[in-house]
Recover the amino acids of this structure.
């Protein structure tokens, strides 16, 4: 596996690949790789292309300084996983290499679908994701990019970026959420939970599934009552629900959708660990 640590070398590497008419499949990450990331990499490996993974813990997307400072850096273990999965190239840039000269990648106003959910509760988070993703996409010049459905609002932002800044020339592949043996959606933050807490957290998806079944049987108008019930159950398990919303899956608003394309979104705190999940209705 090639390991590249500067933007200049990365640009050179990509120019070479493009000269050879190689397609590029790209999985951007913040490291601490888990099965969710591996499933993105495995999807990328299905294309006849070079697979590039980047690891960059982006300080701009952490609204909470201590969350950033405590973010696990597990480069040795990550390297092993990338090699086992036959990744062609790891881009592992130093902080300033990416953060310098970011002005051209700032966005003045994010699209409206980022005003709710994580966009509402994590000030500046998506501005930070926007800048870094734009810079990384410009550097890596990918043909295919892979993102997880767990971070659904982020995936919609990527779709927006690809449409507005890359003329839809990049193919976005959104991969389904991978869950652990308890049903908990995979996230690097899960490492901060004990097994007992993971079992407790498995109630998040159970509650979403209960809501989905009841909505299937009785309609979306029931959601407000179901929401209250679910929050009560999760609070009894010791979680604090930050949001629990039923929204249209394309625009993330509360309008009526003729095609019934709704999703339920949730964020909870278990101790000081923030967990998010979602489910299509
Ligand atoms: O999903 C992530 O890991 C990050 O938000 C991303 C896309 C790598 C940008 O820093």
């Amino acid at each position: 596996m090639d390991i590249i640590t500067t933007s200049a070398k990365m640009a050179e590497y990509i120019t070479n690949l493009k000269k050879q008419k190689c397609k590029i499949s790209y999985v951007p990450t913040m490291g601490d790789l888990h099965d969710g990331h591996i499933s993105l990499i495995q999807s990328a490996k299905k294309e006849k292309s070079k697979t590039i993974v980047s690891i960059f813990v982006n300080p701009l997307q952490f609204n909470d300084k201590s969350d950033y400072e405590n973010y696990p850096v597990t480069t040795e273990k990550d390297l092993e996983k990338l090699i086992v999965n036959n990744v062609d190239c790891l881009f592992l840039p130093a902080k300033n290499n990416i953060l310098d000269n970011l002005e051209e990648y700032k966005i003045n106003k994010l699209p409206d679908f980022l005003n709710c959910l994580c966009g509402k509760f994590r000030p500046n988070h998506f501005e930070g994701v926007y800048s870094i993703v734009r810079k990384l996409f410009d550097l890596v010049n990918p043909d295919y990019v892979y993102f997880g459905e767990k971070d659904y609002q982020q995936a919609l932002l990527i779709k927006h970026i690809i449409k507005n800044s890359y003329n839809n020339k990049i193919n976005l592949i959104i991969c389904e959420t991978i869950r652990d043996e308890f049903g908990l959606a995979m996230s690097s933050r899960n490492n901060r939970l004990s097994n007992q807490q993971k079992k407790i957290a498995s109630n998040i998806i159970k509650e979403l599934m209960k809501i989905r079944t009841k909505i299937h049987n009785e309609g979306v108008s029931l959601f407000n009552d179901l929401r209250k019930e679910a929050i009560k159950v999760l609070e009894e398990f010791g979680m604090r629900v930050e949001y629990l919303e039923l929204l249209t899956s394309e625009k993330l608003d509360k309008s009526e959708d003729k095609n019934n394309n709704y999703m339920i979104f949730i964020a909870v705190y278990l101790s000081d660990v923030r967990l998010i999940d979602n489910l299509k209705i």
Remarks:
- The first strand starts at residue 2 and ends at 4.
- The pocket of pantoate is lined by residues 28-30, 58, 61, 129, 132-133, 151, 154 (CB under 6 Å).
- The chain has two domains: 2-175, 188-280.
- Residues 2-175 form a domain with the Rossmann fold fold (CATH 3.40.50.620).
